[in-house]
Structure to design on (202 residues):
């Protein structure tokens, strides 16, 4: 039982030891620095998009393509091929369509990214609360073990609950580590598609 208590504490402490490196974002759980939004200048060197900002939503063809290109289930090489095909068929409207397409991708992928990051911070707050709860219950279990006469049924019930909560905590911790990669993947997708669009405009 003492081994269980020590194991639980070790897991919880290791899961919460990584604190936000940037004090501006105390709930950010990833080792990657939090960049709240992708900067347009970092991913687009083409003509200004001021004149097309929200107009991409009014073009059914562009909107449908943006949705497909933004979906993570669409492989990047397939997305690049779809961009080339769409712009090759655009003829005289190529520049206008290219700008609309990138404006749509920029808006959509930035929004996706924000959603993922907000979700990560929500889970991070839950993990902190779970760690505090596990710590409290571990101390309660230690106290129960020191009482005479021992209430073995109560000790067993609490230790089983601790094992269950610790397992959930560990599983969530693994998911967070995996999801931390998603904003970077979105950045890379936007940069790669932006580059293809610009190449097709030349």
């Amino acid at each position: 039982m003492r081994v269980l208590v020590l194991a639980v504490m070790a897991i919880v402490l290791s899961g919460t030891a990584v604190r936000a490196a940037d004090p501006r974002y105390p709930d950010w759980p990833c080792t990657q620095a939090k960049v709240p939004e992708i900067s347009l200048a970092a991913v687009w060197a083409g003509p200004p998009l001021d004149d097309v900002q929200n107009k991409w939503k009014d073009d059914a063809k562009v909107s449908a393509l943006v949705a497909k290109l933004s979906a993570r289930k669409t492989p990047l090489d397939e997305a690049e091929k779809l961009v080339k095909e769409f712009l090759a068929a655009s003829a005289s409207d190529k520049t206008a369509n290219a700008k609309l397409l990138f404006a749509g991708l920029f808006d959509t992928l930035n929004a996706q990214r924000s959603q993922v990051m907000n979700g990560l911070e929500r889970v991070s707050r839950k993990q902190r609360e779970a760690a505090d709860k596990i710590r409290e219950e571990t101390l309660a279990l230690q106290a129960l073990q020191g009482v005479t006469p021992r209430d073995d049924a109560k000790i067993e019930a609490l230790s089983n609950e601790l094992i269950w909560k610790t397992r959930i905590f560990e599983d969530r911790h693994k998911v967070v580590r995996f999801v931390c990669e998603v904003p970077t993947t979105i950045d890379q997708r936007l940069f790669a598609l932006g580059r293809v669009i610009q190449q097709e405009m030349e």
Observations:
- Helices lie at 2-17, 40-43, 60-70, 76-88, 94-145, 152-179, 182-201.
- The two ends are 69 Å apart (CA to CA).
- Residues 94-145 form the longest helix (52 residues).
- The CA atoms of residues 83 and 89 lie 10 Å apart.
